[in-house]
Specification:
heterodimer; A: mainly beta; 7-stranded mixed sheet; 4-stranded antiparallel sheet; 11 strands; globular; B: 4-stranded antiparallel sheet; 12 strands
């Protein structure tokens, strides 16, 4: 089974520029997550989708970050404009709902996109 | 505030010795508990999880974890460490209500010495 795909793997931009990341989850996984992982820290959830609806975006800096999952499959995360503190690895993950404990399923992570903002 | 603590930034252990990576949490109710491992330049990989029942959970690559409700801990263990176990380990909890948010710890780097 193919894993979670992300592109690009690396991106270097100047501050105030825009950038977009793409994620294709595992086929059949209804839930998709975007995380920000700053060096030395654990992943921080930015946004969670269930199919094409947003479940949780409470930690998404909405003045500059946006995300969409229009057809309930792949997703894009955009930063506009970028700040120096946005330098991080952006991880996409997906999971499926299982019958007995749908919230207890594990997540499958992509390799991440390393963003450097200069 | 809900949180996950991994008190050790790094754990060093000799190959063949038992290892423990510690995790404690502060979350309302009894959350679901997870361990993930991250190898260099790769995404996180699931190791094991606790849902309910037996406090000792067995997972991938010979790892196990013990849930202790009174101490709100979920320590990761392995009886005999391998050099290939060297990686970054993350503990995570998921709420059983509300938005079912995942909360990750800051990670513990495990270094197994040959």
């Amino acid at each position: 089974e193919a894993g979670v795909a992300q592109s690009p793997r690396y991106k270097i931009i100047e501050k105030r520029q825009s950038v977009a990341f793409w994620c294709n989850p595992i086929s059949g996984h209804a839930t998709l997550y975007w995380y920000q992982q700053i060096l030395g820290q654990g992943p921080k959830l930015l946004i969670q989708f269930q199919n094409n609806g947003v479940v949780d975006d409470s930690q998404l800096p909405k003045d500059r970050f946006s995300a969409e999952r229009l057809k309930g499959v792949d997703s894009t995360l955009k930063i506009q404009p970028a700040k120096l503190e946005d330098s991080a690895v952006y991880l996409c993950a997906s999971s499926f709902a299982s019958g007995g404990y749908p919230q207890a399923v594990e997540q499958f992570f992509g390799p991440g996109t390393r963003l450097t903002v200069l | 505030a809900q949180s996950v603590a991994q008190p050790e930034d790094q754990v060093n252990v000799a190959e063949g010795n038992p290892l423990t990576v510690k995790c404690t949490y502060s979350v309302s109710g009894n959350p679901y508990l997870f361990w993930y491992v991250q190898y260099p330049n790769r995404g996180l990989q699931f190791l094991l999880k606790y849902i309910t029942g037996d406090n000792l959970v067995k997972g991938s690559y010979g790892f196990e974890a013990e849930f202790n409700k009174s101490q709100t801990s979920f320590h990761l263990k392995k009886p005999s460490a391998l050099v290939s176990d060297s990686a970054l380990y993350f503990c995570a909890v998921r709420e059983k209500s509300g938005t079912y948010k995942y909360i990750f710890g800051t990670g513990t780097r495990l270094k197994v010495l040959a």
